[in-house]
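User: Fold this one for me? It's DUF6521 family protein.
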Amino acid sequence: MAERDLSREERALFNPAFTALVCVRVVQGYEKQYRSACPLPVAVTAAVMALQPSIRTALPATIRTGLMNWLDENEAVRVAMGLNAAALAAVVRPGLLFALQSDVLRLQGSGLIVKPRAVTALQDGPEQNTAIQKAAHQLGRWLPSTGSISTVLTLLGVQA
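Assistant: Here's what I get for DUF6521 family protein.
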């Protein structure tokens, strides 16, 4: 990604304000499902996945779908994560820092929480932005259902 100029759309998506919002959506999904602070690796991993169109289109319709079976049926997800995870994590980290510095996300113990009423419900906007936010929310609810985040990262083929 650093070897070429980013397109206008990529610059819009990969700015810290938008990636902060993506992280917030992950944490909101996690909080909704688990009623606790979202582990930092879940927030980063889910945001990285949500930013990839090939992964967004492959996401299951329900969070009851098992991650292992889904990955077996969608081998391209492992390939995409292997190719893009490190570069996209470098894009997500400044957004996460921005969310923490602006007090939209807060650290609680070893996890992240959303400051109450800091971010409203999903608004209408460009279709791609909405799709990314919805995927981030779904991934925040779904990824941890398999077990530990280290297990999830291993299944995805990503090194922590």
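One thing worth pointing out: The chain has a mean pLDDT of 88.
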